[in-house]
Structures are given as structure tokens and as C-alpha cells.
Write a structure and sequence with these properties.
This protein has 148 residues and is of the alpha+beta class. The protein has four helices and five strands. A three-stranded antiparallel beta sheet has the order 1-3-2. A two-stranded antiparallel ribbon has the order 4-5. It is elongated, with a radius of gyration of 37 Å. The termini are far apart.
Length: 148
Amino acid sequence: MERLTIPEAAQRLGVSEVTIRRRIKRSELVSEKEETASGFVYRVLLPILDGGVGTSQQHPVGNSAALEAAIETLRQELERRSEENRRLHELLAREQVHVQQLIAQLQPQTALPEGEVVQPPDQNEPGDQPIVTTQGWWERLRSRLLGG
């Protein structure tokens, strides 16, 4: 592992010094705090490149095999969720068609001509059927306001 200063690490990775500091803070990069005569200096630990220090070649930080495995795992998860999403959309579309069919079946049975009202049978007399009566809008309003 190479121990580079923040400016050296920024140049090596092709990013700004602020980005290096941010990555250190988020523990994306490993660093050591080194005491010097004028204060402290952070040393960023990076793998050694074949080309040596100062090459402009960019490289991934960390274990590339682990990164590739993580990418493959995420790719599989994305595919699984995409398939699940597609199936849920199909189910939703089928259920929407079914609901529309049920609504179409119920509408002719429940629709009353305008002005007709269904009054429930008296609770005390079992077996009575609902009574359909014709009321004007003022009578319906009056019965709602007066509760009867």
C-alpha cells in the first residue's frame, strides 16, 4: 500500500482534494493521521500500481473482485425486482378489468329512475321488503334535515 498525501491521492484518483476528504470522512478511503512538526497530515492508503507513483492511470480503490461481486448481486436484485414489478402491473390491470365488469353488472340492478327512493322496511316487522317511492327533491331534503 502506498501512503499518499491528500493532494497526491486526489491527483492519482483524478478527483479533487475535497472529494478525497469527503471519502475519508465516509470511510470510503482508508487514511492515517500522521503527526509532523507543523501539525497533522492525513496519509491516504492506496494500492500500488504497476506503473509506480505518479502515473495518471486511474484505478478502482479496494478489492475489484469484491466490487464486481457486489455489482453482480445488485444487477440480479434489479432484475428480480423488475420482474416482480412487471407481474404486479399485470395483476393490477387484470383486477381493474374485473372491477369494471363488476361495476357494469351492478349498475343496471341498482339504478333507480330519478326521483325514486328506496325506503328500508320497518325494523320491527321481519320479512318486509324495501318500498320504492317517488319523492320530489324538496321532500328528500326535508326528510334528511328532519331525520325522518
